[in-house]
Amino acid sequence: MAQITDRPLGLARDVTGEHRFKAAEMLAGVARTLVFEDPEGLVDSLKFVVLVGVRAYGLAGRSCHGGGQNVCRLALRAVAERTGLERGEVPAGVTREEFAVTVAEAARVLGFDWRGVQLGWEEDRGERAIPRLPVPGPRRSDESGRVPVPRPGRAVAAR
Length: 159
Known about the structure:
Elements: H1 17-36, H2 45-59, H3 68-83, H4 96-110
């Protein structure tokens, strides 16, 4: 049952300065990816939107509650204003390197400061979008096949 204090569904939250900064930083990273990974290839609209979404998810702390949706929407809107197309659409026949210039310009408009940024940005660490967590192995059993119950360590009394 809905409570009167619940946020109404479908209403967007306000965009803060932090969202603008994150969107600008994310678009700079997307531009870097477009330039350094297959710069002569053509840009695919779906892959571009997925790239922006994955970057926004990472900046939001790999959580659905970190404002990643607002950051992603703001970034796609900034790129759409530069291209004159709908959000997420990419001009047909444009190479990744050419489109990276548009994405970098959108990052600059959002406030990304390019001074001090070197072309050889440090490489991504190759982390997965959703990290793998170690699964605990089976408990060891004694010779009878019975799995002992874990017990806290007993202190040895001094004699």
